[in-house]
Amino acid sequence: MPERSGGETGVGVYLSARQEERLRARLEALPAAVTMTLTVAPVRRPADAAAVELVQYLVALAPRRLRMVLRAEGAHPTPRLEAAGPAGPCRVTFRGSPTGFQLDEWIRALELSAGAPPPRLDPVTAGLLEALPRPVPARVYVSPT
Fold this sequence. Notes:
Layout: H1 17-28, E1 34-40, H2 46-61, E2 66-72, E3 80-85, E4 88-89, E5 94-95, H3 101-113, H4 123-130
Parallel strand pairs: 1-2
Antiparallel strand pairs: 1-3, 3-4, 3-5
């Protein structure tokens, strides 16, 4: 099992040194700075603390490219994580902390928000997606189990 990353922060991100270095390189390669906004309840909860630690960890990996804004408002049932950069808001919102594949998708959303080009699709897939009516709302719910 990989070592727990985050050094002195004790953040609960389990990455090998190689994975952490690849993540750092990916974040430092963002074409522009991105602001991550984390909204938590005004009362401290374990889920909020975990989300704060994760965002602080990402900012520590690429402080020239990432910025964190922490908002304590309302009685949100879970932390809410959003991002915006020069290309606009990433239109991806996480409720809770993104982990596993969710974390990879969050990083991709940061890249798009920073102005990175979207991934290229094969012509068949692109045609199928182009035929969909706009907008296409999607809500994805996942369980930690």
